[in-house]
Specification:
The structure is a single chain. The chain has 626 residues and is α+β, with helices and mostly antiparallel strands. The chain folds into three domains: 14-205, Histidine kinase-like ATPase, C-terminal domain (Heat Shock Protein 90, 2-Layer Sandwich); 211-341, Ribosomal Protein S5, domain 2 (2-Layer Sandwich), CATH 3.30.230.10; 428-612, MutL, C-terminal domain, regulatory subdomain (Ribosomal Protein S8, Chain: A, domain 1). Helices cover 34% and strands 21% of the residues. The chain has 19 helices and 22 strands. The strands form five sheets. Strands 5-4-3-6-2-1-7-8 form an eight-stranded mixed sheet, covered by helices on one side. It has a five-stranded mixed sheet with strand order 9-10-13-11-12, sandwiched between helices. It has a four-stranded antiparallel sheet with strand order 16-17-18-22. A hairpin with a 2-residue loop joins strand 7 (191-196) and strand 8 (199-204). Helix 6 (169-186) runs antiparallel to helix 14, helix 8 (267-277) runs parallel beside helix 9 (316-341) and helix 13 packs across helix 17. The longest helix is centred in the middle third of the chain and has 26 residues, at 316-341. It is elongated and about 95 Å long. The N and C termini lie far apart (86 Å).
């Protein structure tokens, strides 16, 4: 080999090494927030304040009241592989802290402007360091209370190629919010405060339990659907909450697993939880869970992934068996108690009641609604569509009734089928003009049975109604002629922080689909109008179902795809439901709509709209000779 062709091996410069390491540690602003918040937790902080600007692209600040550092430790903290979490090889088998690689600060400082302000002893004073692109530019002494504040600015200023891969501001901030949410659920005893662009997103008080924190973060999202689970034996301990089969979700967004208070992803545990439900879950439905598992650190490998979000168990089969057995028993016991004992889940505790009158009165002051004398129910701490619905009226084409004829709201009214949610205009004359197949009746309040010359046909009333409404809705959207129903007083919808960010991001798409939704303050939105086919009492669950779907979308999804999913969800929730009894006239209208519209024989979910049984098949079942 000629000498000129020899490849020269060199030791890389420290600055370049840090940038390469930053590629693993700093994927996006949320990665920085995760690493710094973990450092704050490891430092023993019980108050952590996170301030963000422009989704973390321009500014990130993490302030804590942890143990802080002296000047010598502060200087070492910005070096690679410098950590106070482990000292020997044996320590790797007993990891009990969140961070231990010692790369975070060095990697972050190599691709941003980093300022470190930390104090271990207030009498000695605080140390302030300024690092730009991995180079220490300034170090000084200053006054500062015990704790640490780290400020990150101009992320990826010296790596423009990485900057191009950044997503939109709402997307990046959503990842940051999810990161804080993971830590807040893992450690409900710590106070977390998140501010974005000078607006307070949420402030979670310290000293809470997991059940209180779930309810503070998600409100009515899990009203009356979670059940407490716990188990302890020599090998492991677990505690938390899982959803009843009736509270399953259409996506996996609401699945939070913590092992030794670290948010992780683990196929073994996920598989065990699904197995615990066995046949209790409906197809394409997923359980929600907030599960904390504790076991000896030597039984876990947390060093699988640079972000430390994936783990391996030494004895995964044993953990799987324990979880399946005990979670299944808990689910069966809770379901039996729910159906026969009529008790609320344990997470709806009396401790939540004390905050209800304050939150309710604030809302009523804003809307100028008189305060009711009776206390609010124990399961409704956040004003929402359901809690405010009795106080609002909806515009209709009917002549308004005099005030003295309005029934008192506390009077018991027998429920009647809601026939306003599905309308088939201009079909009455078609039924008279065109002969439709004889309708034999309704089977199990779910299927329409009709007779044709070739045999019998079973029509799935929900799928059929969904298809016809979807086609009409799509045609109106394409023509830009979406008729909507307005509210005389807007309905308030209280969302979780994650859903509030999602809704803000897709407000324009909702508007194009016939919704008129406006921010009302913090995570509350006011609904002024909805598509006419959607009933008022289905408004909240429809919007939440749409947001669940949108949460799975990536940046490259086209507007047409987003519109399609919104249309499908609206049609699904507006359609005739399974178990809804129909009059003969309603069945005729639905059959006529199917007869007069071209559509594929499957619903948007891929399910058949109708099934045909020929007379030959029937006669074979009766063993007649054909």
């Amino acid at each position: 080999m000629p000498k000129s062709d020899l490849m020269k091996i060199k030791i890389l410069p420290e600055q370049l090494i840090n940038k390469i390491a930053a590629g693993e540690v700093v994927e996006r602003p949320a990665s920085i927030v995760k690493e710094l918040v973990e450092n704050s937790i490891d430092a023993g902080a019980d108050q952590i304040f996170v301030t963000i600007k422009s989704g973390g692209k321009d500014f990130i600040s993490i302030l804590d009241n942890g143990s802080g550092m002296d000047e010598q430790n502060a200087r070492l903290a910005i070096e690679r592989h410098a950590t106070s979490k482990i000292y020997t090889e044996k320590d790797l088998e007993q990891i009990q802290t969140l961070g231990f690689r010692g790369e975070a600060l060095a990697s972050i400082a190599s691709v941003a402007h980093l300022e470190l302000l930390t104090c271990h002893d207030e009498q000695v004073g605080a140390t302030a360091l300024s690092i730009k692109g991995g180079i220490l530019e300034k170090i000084s002494k200053t006054g500062f209370p015990k704790g640490t504040k780290i400020t990150i600015q101009n992320l990826f200023f010296n790596t423009p190629a990485r900057l191009k891969f950044m997503k939109t501001i709402p997307t990046e901030f959503r990842h940051i919010q999810e990161t804080i949410l993971h830590q807040a659920l893992a450690r409900p005893h710590i106070q977390f405060r998140l501010t974005h662009n000078q607006q307070l997103v949420f402030s979670l008080s310290k000293g809470q339990t997991l059940e209180q924190r779930i309810y503070q973060l998600f409100g009515e999202e899990f009203q009356d659907t979670l059940v407490s689970v716990e188990h302890q034996e020599n090998y492991l301990k677990y505690e938390g909450f899982i959803s009843l089969p009736t509270g399953s979700k259409s996506s996996k967004r609401w699945q939070y697993l913590f092992v030794n208070d670290r948010f992780v992803k683990c196929l073994t545990v996920n598989h065990a939880i699904y197995d615990a439900y066995r046949t209790l879950l409906i197809k394409n439905q997923h359980p929600a869970f907030f599960l904390k598992i504790y076991l000896d650190p030597s039984e876990i490998d947390v060093n699988v992934h640079p972000a430390k979000t994936e783990i391996r168990f030494r004895n995964s089969q044993l953990i799987h068996t324990i979880l399946v057995d005990h979670l299944h028993k808990a689910l069966m016991g809770a379901s039996h108690q729910r159906h026969f004992g009529n008790q609320l889940p344990s997470y709806v505790s009396q401790r939540n009641v004390s905050v209800l009158p304050v939150q309710r009165s604030l809302l009523q002051e804003q809307m100028e609604i008189p305060i009711e004398s009776e206390p609010p129910p124990a399961f409704s701490p956040i004003p929402s569509l359901k809690s405010t619905e009795p106080s609002f009226t909806r515009k209709t084409q009917q002549t308004p009734q005099p005030k003295e004829k309005i029934e008192p709201q506390d009077k018991k009214i027998e429920p009647t089928p809601d026939k306003t949610k599905v309308e088939f205009p201009d079909f009455a004359h078609r039924i008279k003009d065109k002969q439709i197949p004889p309708i034999m009746g309704q089977l199990n309040a779910s299927y329409i049975v009709i007779e044709k010359q070739e045999g019998l046909v079973l029509i799935d009333q929900h799928a059929a109604s969904e298809c016809t409404l979807l086609k009409t809705y799509q045609q109106a959207c394409r023509a830009g002629n979406i008729s909507g129903e307005s509210f005389s007083v807007p309905i308030l919808l209280e969302l979780s922080p994650q859903n509030a960010i999602l809704l803000e991001q897709y407000l324009l798409q909702f508007k194009k689909m016939g919704f008129q939704i406006e921010p009302f303050g913090k995570t509350t939105y006011s609904i002024h109008a909805i598509p006419c086919m959607l009933s008022e009492n289905k408004c909240q669950e429809t919007i939440l179902a749409i947001l669940d779907e949108l949460a799975l979308f990536g940046k490259n999804r086209r507007p047409e795809e987003i519109h399609k999913h919104i249309q499908e969800k609206v049609a699904c929730h507006s359609a005739i439901q399974v178990g809804e009894k129909l009059s003969l006239e309603d069945m005729k209208k639905l059959v006529m709509e199917l007869e007069t519209n071209d559509f594929f024989g499957v619903s948007p979910h891929g399910q058949p709209v109708f099934i045909e049984f020929s007379y030959q098949e029937v006669e074979k079942r009766f063993k007649r000779k054909i």
